[in-house]
Amino acid sequence: MSTPATRALRVALRGQSILTSPRFNKGTAFTNSERKAFGLTGREPWRVNTLEEQCQRAYDQLSTRDTPIRKNTFLQSLKDQNWVLYYGLISRHLKELIPIIYTPTQADAIANYSHLFRRSEGMYLTYPNAESMEEDFLEQTRGRDIQLLVCSDAEAILGIGDQGVGGIGITTAKSAIYTLLAGIDPSKSISVTLDVGTDNEELLKDDLYVGWPKNRVRGKAYDEFIDKFVQLVRKYHPHSLLHFEDFGVSNAKRLLDVYRDQHAVFNDDIQGTGAVTLAALASAVGVTKSKLSDQRIVVYGAGTAGLGITRQLRDAMVQIDGVAESDANKQFFLFDRYGLVKESLGPKIRADLREYVRPDAEWEGAPTNDKGEVELFDVVQRVKPTVLIGCSTRGGAFTEKVVREMARGTDRPIIFPLSNPSRLAEVDPKDANIWTDGKALMASGSPFPPCKNPRGGKDYIVAECNNALIYPGLGYGAMITQARSLSDSMIIAGARRLASLSPALADPDSALLPDFHDAREVNTEVAIAVAEQALDEGIADVSWKKDEVREQIVSHMWQPVYADFEYDPNGLQ
Ligand SMILES: NC(=O)C1=CN([C@@H]2O[C@H](COP(=O)(O)OP(=O)(O)OC[C@H]3O[C@@H](n4cnc5c(N)ncnc54)[C@H](O)[C@@H]3O)[C@@H](O)[C@H]2O)C=CC1
Ligand SMILES: CC(=O)C(=O)O
Ligand SMILES: [Mg+2]
Question: What does the similarity note say (predicted)?
Fold first, then answer.
């Protein structure tokens, strides 16, 4: 970890108020002079602890919690008390604790949000309060230098669907990851739930549900509500990054297209997932010594992530390999809940999938199921894909039959079960490893343990292909340069930098992506690449020279270390 900031912060809170402010609370780490100045001498036990000692104590306490969800609740409570301790603790145990505060465990915390609820965190903008939205917004943001807003309407949380107000839990988790992995000051970011109701019947029937218990608002009323929020962001925080997370498939891409020319907006499920998957695939084709544009790619689940991945890979084939877009499109075979996306499905196909629709003639005589759909196995048999990507939320969809068939058609099947949380992965990498006799090159959306090599030799490390390996760097690179937008080239620059850090480059038997243990360093590199590209494109609003970028990026990162405080009645609160 780099050197702590030393300048004393002027703080106006005293006594109980500073102890209940997670931003300023240091607990037993307040020094004796701070205790005097802030009225804490009688409010703290005698001994002054270091952050290191506090982390040790908190880690010991955490270790007594025996299930992931209890650990998640403990950490949430720590975050409510003391940010430096929370981030300091997780930074010291990154690989162990990210799965507790993020996927997979956060999915359970979100699904049980109303029952686990203790206190609110972030901003709740609720449809029936639309009239007072500006007031409610300013209540939490007035006078604050907000650089990042992470928002969700919670219609498609991870792979667990509509979670209503519980969706605040994905925005707070994504914001925490920004802080941990890209050093974004938590006091400069805000997590927002746009509560437009829920179509989740179980939540609607639950008397303890704390969100607005009505069906989702849709159509014009929905668009107006979202627009009101985005215009507030633009008005009060024109240089901020607005991050969209886990919107439903009918809104995600549409909203990105509407707003990307107005403000620096980013859709993580489309752009972040596309970028991290591109990096993993670039690394895999390095191992197989083939070109991206030579791959025959089956994308199973043509929703928000599926489309984002397809477009990103397609654009990279065009930009990196120089193939025509129409030829690149032909390398993709998309599946959705109605089977292979082919011409005769007509209006069932969303407009944004049109470029990738397979011609019916190609499938004449192919076996179909009793609904007339062409199934995954038959496509695998006929197309002999080199790449199989899952983002369908359908756990176990890559069956033994499908995976064995794929391995018959290609030497090194590239298999990415990306659905989260772990139980929704399209295949357990351990099984795919056995069914392909250890030949599969794999990456998964949630963490999985290494696989034994059936032919002996070292274990195969399954890369975690989660957008968290790249979105904090993409976002930070855009924010720090005050870029007017996060352009496609900035995203590709980030993905290429990530791919360049792949362990498989040096050793083809290694993981396709860097380990999450190194996720902060990795995201720092991504941020540098993104900032350099923003400068090259002339869309940055800073006048740095290229060789200053690294220093600027690193020196502006927030670190989980205690600053010295001085009491000042006109100071921060
Ligand atoms: N690894 C990562 O970084 C990321 C992973 N994901 C995961 O990808 C999954 C999908 O997320 P989104 O695209 O946001 O959701 P989505 O709801 O937009 O997309 C899911 C798609 O799968 C389709 N589908 C459902 N059942 C199917 C079936 N039996 N066969 C084929 N297709 C089927 C749906 O019709 C829908 O189009 C989730 O589990 C999510 O956690 C999403 C973003 C990032
Ligand atoms: C990782 C992520 O963004 C998702 O599963 O939705
Ligand atoms: Mg997501």
Answer: Belongs to the malic enzymes family.
